[in-house]
Structure formats: C-alpha cells, structure tokens
Write a structure and sequence with these properties.
The complex is a heterodimer of chains A (559) and B (87).
Chain A lengths: L18 E4 L3 E2 H17 L4 E5 L3 H13 L3 E4 L5 H10 L2 E4 L24 E7 L5 E7 H19 L3 E4 L6 H14 L3 E2 L6 H8 L6 E5 L1 H4 L8 H4 L5 E4 L5 H11 L4 E6 L3 E7 L5 E2 L4 E4 L5 E4 L9 E3 L1 E5 L5 E6 L3 E4 L2 E4 H9 L4 E10 L3 E9 L1 H10 L1 H12 L11 E5 L12 H9 L7 E8 L2 E7 L19 H15 L5 E10 L8 E9 L4 E8 L2 E11 L4
Parallel strand pairs in A: 1-9, 3-4, 3-5, 4-6, 8-10, 10-11, 11-12, 23-24
Antiparallel strand pairs in A: 1-2, 6-7, 12-13, 13-14, 15-16, 16-17, 18-19, 20-21, 22-23, 25-26, 26-28, 27-30, 28-29, 29-30
Helix pairs in contact in A: 1-2, 2-5, 4-5, 11-12
Chain B lengths: L2 H13 L25 H15 L17 H14 L1
The chains are: A alpha/beta (559), B mainly alpha (87).
Amino acid sequence: MSGFIALRDILLDGVDERTAAVGPALERRELVDDALRFAAELQARHIQQIALHLTDAAAVAIALLGAWRAGVRVVMPADLQDDSRTRLLHTVDALISDDQPLDTWLTQAPLTPAPLAPYDACLVLSTSGSTGQPKLIEKRLYQLANEIAALEQQWGAALGDALIVASVSAQHIYGLLFRVLWPLCAGRPFVREVQPYPEYLQQASLGHRQDFAWVTSPALLKRLGDNLDWQALRSVRKVFSSGGPLPAGAANDVQRRFGQPACEIYGSSETGGIGWREGTLPWTPFAGVSIEPSGDGGFLIKSAYLPAGHAEPCADAVRHLTDGRFELLGRLDRIVKLEEKRISLPRLEQALLQHPWVADTRLGVVHTNRAFLGALVALSEQGLQALRNGGRRALTEALRSHLSGHCEALALPRRWRLVGQLPSNSQGKLPQRDVDALLAAERTRQPERLSLEQQDDEWKVTLAVPLDLAHFSGHFATTPILPGVVQVDWVMSLARELMPLPPRFGGLEVLKFQQLVRPGDHILLTLRFDTERSKLYFTFHNGEATCASGRIVLEQAHA
Amino acid sequence: MSLLHLEIKNLIIDALGLEDIGPSDIGNEQTLFGEGLGLDSVDALELGLAIQKHFGIRIDADAKDTRVHFTNVSTLAAYISARQAVA
C-alpha cells in the first residue's frame, strides 16, 4: 500500500486529493482543514480538556486530531448516561457530542499544519472497572501509532484501498483504530455512520464500484440472517470482528457465506491488541506482544502498544500452546460482556443497593437467544410491602427505571428473582455460578418448607410463601394473592409425601378461604387424615388467624 | 388489536425474553427501540431474524431504511402484510 502516513504526520497531509470518508463524502484536505479549525477554536476558548462522544467517524477524527494539535487532552466516555455526563461535567471543559453540530466549532481560521506530539497527545478511554467505578485508560499517540503500523503491516496488502464499513461505534478502541485512525493513516476511505443492521452494511458496501472491508462484532455476525446478497458480498476484502470471541457456529456461517473466515481481533482498551485468529483456530499474538503468567493465576501483557516496561494485567485466563499460539479460557473477574459491551456487575449492584426496596443483590448473566442480565434481589421490609401492595411488575419496573440513570439499556436486568434473603453455600458464600443457576431457573411453584413435626396423627408444616411464586403473576398483577387452587394443590402434594393416602380424588368439602395469603407470609399447615371417613382435614394458619380450611375426600381406586 | 398485531407482540415477548410483560402491555403505536420498551439494536437484530423466520418473509436488503418498519407494532404489521403479499 503506497502513501501510508504516520499518525503524528496526519495533519501535514493538507494537499492530499484522496477521499477520507463517504456518506457524505469528505476529502482528506477538508478533514485536515476542519481539524485545524477545531484546534483554533479550542485554543481561542483556552480549553484544556474535552470529552468526545460522536456517531460520525469523520467528526471523531476531526475533533480528536484537532484537539491533539491544540495540545488538548481528549476523554472518550463509553456512554452518555446521566451518571457519565455528571462525572464528565466535573472534569472536562467541553463536551463535544451529537447534541450540537460540530460545525459550530469550525468557524475560526485554521491553525497551521504541524506534526502531533507522540508522547504528549493524550486520549483517555473509559470502560467498566471491577471496583464499580469506570476505569480510565490513558493512551499516548505513539501507542496508537505503533498499533496502526502493526495492523497495516499485517493486513495492509489484503485490504488494498478497500472502503471501510463498520457496524461498531468509533467510541471504543477497536472502532477508533479500525474504522477511523488506521484507514486515515493508510489512505483508505471509511463510511462515516455506523451500520448496525446487515442490510445497511450491504447497502453501504455495494454500489461504490470499490472494494470494501467490514469492521464488525460478534453481535452482528451471529445475526446475519439470510436476506443478503452473499454472491456480491463475497468480494469483501476482510471481515474483522472484535469485542468478544465469535462462537464456532457463527464463525462457520461467515466462512460459508463470504468464502473466507472472519478475522478476529483479541485485545482490550487497557492492553491494546493482543492477538488475532481466522476461523476457529487458536489465537496468534501480534508481533512483539508477550503474554506471561503473573504468578497469581492471571496474565500480564507487554507490548509496543503499552508504555515501555509496563506490564498490563489481562482479564482473561490464557492457555499457551507449544507453537506460540494461545487459547482463551474466560474472564477472571466480575466484569461480564453482553454483546461485546463490558458491564461491571459490582457497579450495577451498588446502584441497585441505593434503592430503599433492595436489602441485598447479586447480578448474573442469563443466556437465551441473546445474553442479558438477571438480578437476584433480597427485598427490604419496604420492598416487601411494595411487592405485596403493588405487585411484582410495578416493583421490577421501578428498579429498572432506578438503574436506567446508571447504565445503558443493554445492561438493565431483564429477569428478576425476588427473595427474602440471598442464599449462601456451606462456606457462607454465594458463588457466581450459583447466582447464574438461580437466575436461569424458572420461577418456583412450590412453597419453602421451614419446619415439619408430627403429633399423633396430625402433621404440622410451616411454609414460607416465596416472594416470587410463579402463580402470583396472573393473580393478580397489582395485588399478588396465593390462589385457593394452589393451596389445595400444596395440601395434596405435601400430604401424599407424609402419609399413605388413597389414590383417587373424590371432591372437596366445607372449603373456606377466610384470609388472603400473600408473598412472604409464613403459614402453618395442619394435616390429618381420618381413615374411617377417608377424608384429609387441612387448615392454613397465619399466626392466630385461619386463612383456609377444608376436607378433601379420597377414594380407593376402583378395580 | 388484530390477530397479526397480537402475533407480533407475542413474538417480541418470546424472542426477546421479556418478563412481566403481556401482549396488552405493548401499545400498537408504542416505540419499540430506544425509549419506550427499552430495547436496543441487538434486540432489533434478534427481532429481525425472528420475524423473517416466523412469518416466512425476507427483509428486503436493497430497500432503503428497512428498519423504519420496526418503529412500532403497527408499522411492523403493515410491513409484514406487504412482504407476505410479495412472497
């Protein structure tokens, strides 16, 4: 590939006639001119630090390069939720976002073109940290430049002058490098807007009479569908995927449809690129990247994409193969990835705990068609009252809306399991796999048994009515009440367990429901079987009050 | 609510694993993605697949702005009817 320009020299490229970006088209000299105007505006306003959150990849390039030219530090938040906005407003002088067109920042006469400072130009990325606070990761220009040079070395020839089309945002390191900075340095045009749906990617790719390459993620490649023009799309130069491993099924689909494997990139904001693979083979480290055991079961990364001498802990467990390649064995911390977005479970748990209805909580991942979060919530006394008086849906809605200021919609728990207190194992711990199993299970249909005793021919069973009993959902949505038919069902199944009974149900007698039974109630069930009359006598008490009573007639099976 | 509307709502609930929500809780004109039900672009991808499979239609990959049809249940119903007529 001719005409590769080092990242530090990008703004010296003012006479270049090539196209920088399409949709709408922007020439490289226009992009450079805009960046220098943006730099002038920042200087005129004496701005030291900006936050950047933009959907247009060309605007990202203009603002980032302009800020670096002006000696301004750039923070890229992972999202613009209320929490993040508030935090940013305390730390930066200006927030450059889609709220306001970038053009309003481009009215000054441009600064003169100049090389950027490799060790001073600074970008701060933000990602979910395991402590609950977002983790800030500082990158200097030379780190990014080293990575771009390595990518060009590896795949420059294969890409040629392909148009870069992306389904991922430019707000994270992968998108920023692959769809903005690398193409800029290499002279490849890129599509400005993100193309989140398969048919949008296809439309943005075909019809330019030009080669193209895709920058995508497993979230998209797993869901390609079969409505695309695969014949035309087979000319794709490369299908990159990053953010998480591509499942084997999706990898095979890509191979079959595009006639080539997806090219997966493994890395993180903290570590930069670590390795790559094509198809379902093991991972190959990028040249100059070393992965060493840290001694505590984890791994340390050293590379030219990190400050010299720095060893960055790796969040995944790694198995080295003898040929230098490696396999990934899963994460070591309580950060989960949902569709490539990193979610800190501790952070969300802390946010949930701030709600007065929540006494304790643990989150986990539920896997169905897509992976989403589930919340195991121990309700406070107030929370229990809210459930009893308003129903489950109103309660979970309130908790979701409480959380919505703290996280993206993607991270809002979709499944809720309500309990009186969180369970623990024999070591007094609640391992993540137990949380995940509880969340994966269906809502219970049975009571919890607290005690059991026999006096003469009478059994007394103390039962706790689960907060989350499946029967409460339809009965009734806003005032959960234990249905009478369920009470009779519990009587029969418990009685059959405790005593030998005739098999046939013969009917109910003097059935009375005197007081409502509600979530969280402890009720005492008294059972006695009168052999002479062949009738099962039962009573439910809640403290002094009788909730229900009756007789069940049982008959011998007829021959 | 027509049968098709009901079918779409049930499909949304099943395909996206929504809890504590019944078909009657989703308004015909209620915005599905972003605000409203709080669904995101991955849900849109999932729903796109589910709808093509369930109704035996294809989202036309050459038409512009196909995802505008995913705005709400009514727009989806109109789109599905139109695509079924094509097939």
